[in-house]
């Protein structure tokens, strides 16, 4: 109870008619406004400088996210075209390991590649092709998909660098991951022959080139004439950060979910030790098919026609054309690892559900019997067309028989040793051209 003479204490806020101050509330408001300003600045920066968008985000959009930089470009670009990879970047780090990052069958802890090859490095030129420097003119042009693209690795020295050192010729690479013969032809016409090469080396990969050709043919036959017309086409969103956050959350959820990792096949090295080897599920499936299956694909004829046109335009430009047959890892090594039908079947069916009901032993027998079908078909085609043909298979098989796989354990591409097997055969072919 207040005493009669006790002074009355009134808060300043009450006397002034203003609400009392709340420091915590003001702090939260300040932080919120700062966060909104930061997010707005970040969103604005990405719109002004789309090259700063992370590759893991842009790669989820068609053509590597080229429309972040060139809005509407894919509305007019034909599906045979292969736009420059604006968002690809030079790379220095561990071997990529596509059987872990994409096929997701390899436990990173079991992958021996980082120990065997601690650092790999490749560089992109101003046109976003894998070359040390951009060349206006070149003696030799390399055309292919990721197999051709991978020979550009600078460290450890890849085929392109070693071939340059061996021959002294200017070699330029216009290969691009994920393309098929029709797109390779487009690359040659639009980015290659203008460099006035005296020789073109066309990389044909039996792991997926005909399959990629069939995808192109099916799309065109269905009336999808431009990149933007295909059903899976995804335009860049109006707001980048919310979509990025959604993709990131999905990616984290997938990473945290239990993975069905598989053991590798055992490959015996020259010193008697063993090395785990994994095969790409789609390559195991593809190489198990007989000749009539390949011939019946609509894209088979289109692939041959694209190669035929590429050869003709090359020779019309005054250059020689070499068809280089590149076998996938399955083709070379499946008969040189331990025989395990159950593991081969499980690995193939990891992403190829149609295989799951087949018999493992029958599947492996089909694979061993049919793995050379594409090489025979391509050799016969080249002979009938008068196209110079070279197969990398015998050189890679000889390397494997001497205890070196020639491919990365957890990746579908050549190891440095695999690159080395082709240096002399290709140098010899190029010397014939020079002479």
Describe the structure in brief.
This protein has 435 residues and is α/β, with parallel strands linked by helices.
- Cα Rg: 28 Å
Helix % is 40-55%
Biggest sheet: strands, sense, closure? Answer: 5 strands, parallel
CATH superfamily of the domain at 93-205 and 267-434: SGNH hydrolase
Q: Treating each run of at least 4 consecutive H or I residues as one helix, how many helices?
A: 21
Q: Largest sheet, order of strands side by side?
A: 4-3-5-8-9
CATH topology of the domain at 93-205 and 267-434: Rossmann fold
The quaternary state of the protein chains shown equals: single chain
Backbone structural class:
alpha/beta
CATH class term of the domain at 93-205 and 267-434:
Alpha Beta
Shape, please?
Answer: globular
How many strands?
9
Query: Residue-averaged pLDDT, rounded?
Result: 90
Beta-strand share of residues? 5-15%
């Amino acid at each position: 109870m207040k005493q009669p003479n006790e002074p009355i204490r009134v808060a300043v806020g009450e006397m002034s008619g203003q609400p009392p101050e709340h420091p915590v509330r003001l702090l939260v408001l300040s932080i919120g406004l700062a966060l909104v300003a930061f997010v707005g600045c970040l969103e604005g920066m990405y719109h002004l400088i789309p090259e700063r968008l992370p590759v893991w985000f842009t790669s989820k959009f068609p053509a590597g996210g080229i429309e972040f930089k060139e809005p509407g470009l894919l509305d007019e670009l034909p599906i045979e075209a292969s736009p420059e990879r604006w968002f690809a970047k030079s790379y220095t780090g561990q071997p990529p390991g596509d059987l872990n990052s994409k096929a997701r069958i390899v436990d990173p802890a079991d992958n021996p590649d980082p120990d065997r090859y601690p650092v790999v490095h490749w560089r992109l030129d101003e046109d976003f092709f894998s070359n040390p420097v951009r060349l206006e003119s070149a003696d030799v042009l390399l055309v292919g998909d990721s197999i051709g693209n991978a020979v550009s690795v600078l460290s450890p020295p890849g085929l392109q660098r070693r071939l340059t050192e061996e021959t002294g010729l200017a070699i330029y690479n216009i290969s691009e991951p994920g393309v098929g013969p029709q797109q390779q032809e487009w690359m040659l016409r639009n980015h290659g022959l203008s460099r006035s090469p005296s020789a073109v080396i066309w990389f044909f990969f039996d792991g997926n080139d005909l399959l990629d050709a069939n995808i192109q043919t099916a799309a065109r036959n269905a009336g999808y004439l431009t990149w933007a017309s295909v059903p899976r086409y995804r335009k860049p969103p109006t707001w980048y950060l919310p979509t990025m956050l959604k993709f990131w959350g999905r990616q984290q959820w997938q990473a945290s979910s239990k993975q069905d990792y598989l053991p590798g096949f055992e490959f015996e090295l020259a010193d008697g030790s063993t090395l785990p080897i994994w095969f790409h599920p789609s390559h195991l499936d593809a190489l198990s098919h007989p000749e009539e299956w390949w011939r019946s694909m609509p894209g088979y004829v289109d692939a041959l026609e694209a190669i035929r046109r590429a050869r003709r335009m090359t020779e019309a430009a005054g250059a020689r054309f070499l068809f280089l047959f590149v076998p996938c890892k399955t083709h070379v090594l499946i008969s040189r690892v331990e025989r395990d039908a159950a593991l081969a079947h499980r690995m193939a069916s990891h992403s190829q559900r149609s295989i799951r009901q087949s018999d493992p032993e029958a599947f492996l027998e089909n694979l061993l019997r049919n793995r050379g079908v594409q090489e025979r078909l391509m050799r016969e085609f080249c002979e009938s067309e008068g196209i110079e043909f070279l197969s990398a298979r015998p050189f890679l098989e000889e390397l494997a028989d001497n205890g070196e796989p020639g491919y990365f354990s957890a990746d579908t591409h050549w190891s440095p040793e695999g690159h080395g097997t082709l240096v002399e055969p290709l140098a010899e072919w190029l010397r014939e051209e020079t002479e």
